[in-house]
Amino acid sequence: MGLHGLPIPAHFDPQKVDRVWKVAYQQIAAGARNWAGDHRILPAARDRKRTFLLLVDVQNTFCIPGYELYVGGVSGSGAVDDNRRLCEFLYRNLDVITEIGLTMDTHQAAQIFHSIFLVDANGEHPPPYTMVTVEDIEKGKWRFNSELAAQLNIAATYGQIYLRHYTRQLKASGKYDLTIWPYHAMLGGIGHALVSSVEEAVFFHSMVRISQPDFQIKGGNPLTENYSVLRPEVLVDPDGNAVAAANAGLIDKLFQYDRILIAGQAKSHCVAWTIADLLGEIDRVDPELATKIYLLEDCASPVVIPDIIDYSQQADQAYRRFAAAGMNIVRSTDPIRKWPGMAL
């Protein structure tokens, strides 16, 4: 094995990363068995140092041009380039990666960040990328769509009270204002699925290492955003009752690994908030644990909608804060064996 890791298997086609296609599971599985033998790769259960690769929302809805919330980044080809590098990194380092976790943003139509949830005085819904502030709610610019009350099993008056509480909570915690996003990552839709090239690479890893991927579903609660896989944006209602809970199982699991690698989309939102929440847990347990976190900066891009929204600066600021806390900012194209503290 060379300094740059394992060779990339012949089935990987870097020109197909921007497309949706069917993974040939049986063919990949057969090839994986021979590959493991040829390169003397041991099952993941025998790893002396255990490495968890957390992939955040590498789904068609964010990563395929023309889909609902394509993360083009500054270049316009951000998520596609990120996933090409990500697949190559995964193949080159199959023997190092013990387990892969995949977060899946999962939504239905009637959720607090979709247009249908709100109306103005004329009954019109806010268009995508509308930023809804606490002042907007308090002045009546946007109101809860009372037609959803029965569906959500709440009173129409409570819906408006909750919206005021929700936007206040976001402001008080320093989070982004409530953003109305295009309908995306819809449960059962093509946009919800993993990017085909990434799915293929993850399946190949599963076969070679005999390691089941860990899928983490997030975002299904209609009353809160859920950028981070570790916790929703708002946890309690106006009366202090639980709306949602932190993902304690995944938090506990991550602390069991020697190293955690993180990549995915979008760098400014779901990736950044996941890392921020992980850092919060680390600070609570032992700040030195931050040194075992590796952020693949060239496998994540910020949300940039030309002439509408550009979160590049926020993403960069977040990563500078993570680095200052002791996390390692790395590039997938650099040999993993040369990363800081990566004794293999």
SSE arrangement:
Elements: H1 25-38, E1 51-56, H2 60-63, H3 78-92, E2 99-105, E3 118-119, E4 131-132, H4 134-138, E5 143-144, H5 149-152, H6 156-172, E6 178-179, H7 196-209, E7 214-218, H8 248-254, E8 259-264, H9 270-285, E9 293-296, E10 304-305, E11 309-310, H10 312-324, E12 328-330
Parallel strand pairs: 1-2, 1-8, 2-7, 8-9, 9-12
Antiparallel strand pairs: 3-5, 4-6, 10-11
Helix pairs in contact: 1-7, 3-7, 9-10
Question: How would you summarize this macromolecular structure in one to three sentences?
Answer:
The chain is an alpha/beta fold and 344 residues long.
For the structure shown, list the relevant keywords.
344 residues, alpha/beta, Rossmann fold, 2 domains
Structural features, described:
With 344 residues, the chain is an alpha/beta fold. 32% of the residues lie in helices and 12% in strands. It has two domains: 21-74 and 94-107 and 187-338, 3-Layer(aba) Sandwich (Rossmann fold); 115-179, no CATH class. The strands form four sheets. The protein has a six-stranded parallel β-sheet, with helices on both faces. A two-stranded antiparallel sheet has the order 3-5. The chain has a two-stranded antiparallel ribbon with strand order 4-6.
Report the radius of gyration as a whole number of Å.
21 Å
Cα shape: globular
The CATH top-level class label of the largest domain: Alpha Beta
Give the total of beta strands. Answer: 12
CATH architecture annotation name of the largest domain: 3-Layer(aba) Sandwich
User: CATH homologous superfamily of the largest domain?
Assistant: Isochorismatase-like
Query: Helicity, in percent?
Result: 25-40%
Helix and strand pattern: HEHHEEEHEHHEHEHEHEEEHE
The strand order across the widest sheet is: 7-2-1-8-9-12
Question: Which stretches of 5+ consecutive residues score pLDDT under 50?
Answer: none
